[in-house]
Design goal:
alpha/beta, 2-enoyl-CoA Hydratase, Chain A, domain 1, Lyase 2-enoyl-coa Hydratase, Chain  A, domain 2, seven-stranded mixed sheet, 11 helices, 10 strands, about 45% helix, about 15% strand
Length: about 260
Amino acid sequence: MNTDRPESTGGTVRVEMDGDVAIVTLDRRAKRNAINEQTVSALGQAFATLPATARAAVLTGAGEHFCAGLDLSELGETSAAEALFHSRLWHRAFEDIQFGRVPVVAVLHGAVVGGGLELAAATHIRVAEQSTFFGLPEGQRGIFLGGGGTARLPRIISVSLITDMMLTGRTLDATEGLRVGLVQYLMPDGQGLAKGLELAHIIARNAPMTNYAVTHALPRIADMSIEQGLLLEAMTSSIVQDAPEAKARMQAFLAGRAAKVRPPE
């Protein structure tokens, strides 16, 4: 992997480039990458200001864990108003991930807990290593999800499973995470980043407008009535296929210069 010089964003997040893929790394390894206010602000800034050459991104965590969630030492004696504004800070940062300029592949290992799972849910493709475990210990901490998990996680896994995890402290291992749809890929320990980069480089070769439509229009269509969804689909399709790159790709396919879809190996 040949990466350009890393850039630091707020001291707890690193951004570097591998060709046209941005690698965003949480780096609070002494805290198991638990997220404090500085870190969530840095995450939002990193994804809102990705280099112009980036066509996909990989999100991962330094050290033994992806992210152990909210840094609980920040809560202290906060007022309801302060907690509200803190939650909305997370919402804005994670919006910059889910509805940013490029698709994001998360590479997960170790703890993906609480706010860490909320962060992973804001990405588009999730790769887990065997060491990964998932938890929502809010019930045991006397708190509630505040980073968008109640909105995003039920669109990935069932409300009944989320309820179980929050009420009982149940954790899922990587194999269970794959089975219930929390992740799309499962890799041996130490091989997750290579797989994440492989997927991100495949994504980066797509037409940018198609990638944008998949990450922005598809989830919104899924939340609409059929009639509204079909209209947005038609409008999105017409805009995407009108892009010069889309027309060039279609001509290449018709001329027999593009690869055909093959069955899985």
